[in-house]
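note to self: the first set is below, dont mix up w the second
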Amino acid sequence: MRLVRISDVRKKELRRAAFEVLQREGMAGATLEKVAAHAGASKGIVLHYFANKQELFEHAMREANTALRDAVVARLNRAVTPRERLEAIIEGNFEERFFQPSICHAWLSLCAEVPREPQLARIQKVIHARMRSNLMSALIALLPKNECEHVALAITALIDGLWLRLGLQSNGFTREDALQQMRDYLACRLPHNIS
């Protein structure tokens, strides 16, 4: 059995606290002091593990995206057909525990920092590359090759847009609404006779 170091446990607690503060306060309102208070620690403890606010929130973003990635991978592992793979990717990106107004607010806050923070930009680039790769692996069996890239980009843009919508207008917009938008797009874009 692998022993877990106390420092690893503490870092994980601080990353989670940072993401929770980010959900409530946004990037502009999130401070190391608020993260420390939320985690039941001092600002000094936070700075012991993370060099600054940017590094802490970079790690929080990585952890949040790892959880989302794992949800998608778990669904992909159960998918058999290309169509099921596509549905797994889409449904995983709208999993109820993630597709919440507060999480969408935090995601928007972090995305707003991407142009100014090279580390966040790198994380975003990896996320988009992974999404493209997953989508292409399903689409290549469903569409002519020359259409796959276009459809993958459209699906990604629609997913991002629906997350943006929930982040900006939380009341009345649901996971089911988002999934229906995706189904409507796919019904128009994919052949009906392919599984």
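second set (the one i keep forgetting abt)
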Amino acid sequence: MFNGKLIVFSAPSGSGKTTIVKHLLKQEALNLAFSISATSREKRGDEIEGKDYYFLSTENFKKHIKRSDFLEWEEVYRDNFYGTLKKEVERIWAMGKHVIFDIDVSGGLRIKKKFPEKTLAVFVKPPSIDELKIRLKKRKTESEDKINMRISKASAELATAPLFDCIIENEILDNAKKEAYSTVLKFIES
């Protein structure tokens, strides 16, 4: 089986990591496939089962935890679980591609710890907490309470940035995309 590399993108919610990851997936030279995370949260907007996430009930998610089916998992918010199923990485490697993750900070660091040589861990940093709040409000996908919860969590997440292999500040999106592309290409070619 192809033994590809693992590319982890983590950031506080609203930092732009998903936009950057989607950009990288379109770059054929990188040979990437998206690791679809499992979650127990409800679908948002036009999210698609098996494309954006594997949506599991909390009960089903906990069954997978007991069976050690996850590469990593986290209770990100109370009763909101996120994780990476081991079979997801195997599926992508079987396609002969490198795996790119768009996951929370804790999950990203767990993958880096388990596979230090195979993993590039990238932290996407917003220009400021105020800008982060503006971006989250523009999404119009969550209540004010959820936004405030994400903002309070962002401070703790920002403190973990030095634990990542590199930090990309997303003030100007095009610049962040270019930096992400060159960083990932260099890692894959190494």
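remember for set 2: The radius of gyration is 16 Å.
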